[in-house]
Amino acid sequence: MTKKNLFTLVLCLFCLGTTTHAQHIPTLEEAVYGGLIKTEGGSNVSWMKDGERYSKIEKNAEGAYEVTAYKAKDNSKEVLIPANMLLNPQTGKPISVRNFIFSEDNSKVLIYTNTRRVWRYDTRGDYWVLNLKNGKLQQLGKSLPEATLMFAKFSPDASRVAYVSRNNIYVESLVDGKINQLTQDGNNEIVNGTFDWVYEEEFNCRDGFRWSPDGQYIAYWQSDTQGTGWFDIINNVDSIYPKIQRFPYPKAGTANSAVKVGYVSADGGNTTWLALPGDARNHYIPRMEFIPGCNELFIQQMNRAQNTNKVWIAKIGENTPVNIFTDQDAAWLETNDNVRWLKGNKYFTWESERDGWRHLYRVSRDGKEIKPITQGAFDYIQEVGADMDKGFVYFIASPDNFTQRYLYQARLFGNGEVKRLSPVDQSGQHRYIMSPSGKWAVHTFSNSETPPCNRHGVFPCP
Questions:
Q1: Pairwise CA distance, residues 144 & 96, whole Å
Q2: Which of 11, 25, 165, 416 has a Cα-to-Cα distance from 91 of 20 to 30 A?
Q3: For 119-187, what is the HEC assignment?
């Protein structure tokens, strides 16, 4: 909305109000924030695994929650999970769905509800599993305190669910309901499967465990906050009387938590801790993921100054990782959150400013070969998606002005040449949510005179 249009709207509202004393003259805040002026914001689209549909949580005509899906081809709607399948078996009352996750085979749905805030986000709550084949709805962790479960996720074969509760990690069978407690030492100072304040604040870390691709192991972070200074705040929110809340919070130059990573059998047993070198209180381990299709961990370790990022690979069954690659910068580095493995895990993508601009690189598994995927006097901002069959990666960049963001493509095994896909007559910001198949996308465009506008269609949705 232009300033001229906004002024005209406010002037009209003022003139309308002068015609009768009975009418309330809206303030500018009421006009903009009270719903008189509405724009189409970014879409919360969750693409389904088939890449042809996206799902949503919506209310039906009776006001009850249901899970729906829309076909990208024609935007036709289907109800995946009707409201009558989301009733608490004990009370018969509807379950308020905060979020949901389908299992890999789409036979079950993990439902997140009754949430509680942990610092910035609602990461604690209750979880239910809905079996789509027989309609059975079962609550997880029923023996644990209400709304204490965090980061629940299906095993690859959907036979079990792992979650965190009160700083310990559990695995629950969906066949017989048996619960295995994998860690025993979690308390106010030892944190398993999630993170302390520093990792959430500095690295956006919350979910602190991963299933192995074969479903036999859980890899996780453990933070030992002993020796870290405590910070007191007054909690005026959770009750009518204020309470003092204490939590470990290292200030600059003081002792950090000692953080380590390891893996344990999903059936229980001893944890194998990985022998990463360096002082655990003066290094960070901000990222750890399993390499697709194999029981190997891809780990990023940063120094406290955050200007060196060492990449390690660790094999399940061993405890000594191998340093395959190191990225450095004179100032500071960011973590790599969009690593993509190529050609049967022989290469991986890596975002770096090693040439002075932020670009995407292709790195061999042993770290000896580093080739640019994108090149030029501009910053690569973020990946949108990739078409592995055609060998293209799609990304957002700002070549001329950082307030302008456009869609580009480059070959994963090319010479660094990039091609702009955003129309030249659409100056502004472009955002995309690409389907897993790479065929469809939601395109959001806006600029200083155009509110965010969404388009659904064949990628790149010009």
A1: 20
A2: 165
A3: CCEEEEEEEEEEECCCCCEEECCCCCCCCCEEEEEECCCCCEEEEEECCEEEEEECCCCCEEECCCCCC
- DSSP class of residue 401 equals -
CA distance linking residue 343 with residue 78, whole number of Å? 37
User: What whole-number distance in Å separates Cα of residue 205 and Cα of residue 196?
Assistant: 9
Rounding to the nearest 10 degrees, give the CA dihedral for residues 42, 48, 53, 57: -60
Distance CA 220, CA 271 (A): 10
Q: C-alpha distances in angstroms, 259 versus 26, 181, 206, 223? A: 54, 21, 14, 4
Fold annotation for 182-337: Methanol Dehydrogenase; Chain A (2.140.10)
Share of the chain above pLDDT 70, in %: 90
**Residue 22 Rama label (left phi>0; alpha psi -120 to 50; beta):** alpha
Which helix or strand (DSSP H or E) is residue 410 part of?
Answer: strand 406-411
Task: Give ranges for CATH 2.140.10.30 in the chain.
Answer: 182-337
pLDDT the model gives residue 120: 85
Cβ neighbours around 118 below 10 Å, total: 13
Kindly report, residue by residue over 254-285, the tens digit of the pLDDT.
999 999 999 999 999 999 999 999 999 999 99
Q: What is the 8-class DSSP label of residue 203?
A: H
What does the pLDDT look like over 316-327, one tens digit per residue? 999 999 999 999
Q: Is 326 helix (H, G, I), strand (E, B) or coil?
A: strand
- Please choose, from the candidates 345, 457, 462, the residue with its C-alpha nearest in 3D space to the C-alpha of residue 45: 457
The one-letter code for the residue type at 367 is G
Residue 29 three-state SS: helix
* Residue 130 one-letter amino acid: L
- Start-to-end CA distance of the chain, whole Å, equals 22
Q: Report the pLDDT value the prediction gives residue 29, as an integer from 0 to 100.
A: 58
At 11 the pLDDT is: 39
pLDDT for the residue numbered 458: 87
Mean pLDDT of the chain: 91
The answer to whether the CB of 194 falls within 8 A of the CB of 150 is yes
Q: What is the Cα gyration radius of the chain?
A: 25
CA-to-CA separations, 426 to 184, 383, 397, 405, 419, in angstroms, rounded: 56, 20, 14, 10, 16
The token pair at 274 is 């990985």
> 367 with 433: CB under 8 angstroms?
no
Closest CA to 194 of 225, 173, 220: 220
User: In the numeric block, which tokens belong to residue 33?
Assistant: 């924030």
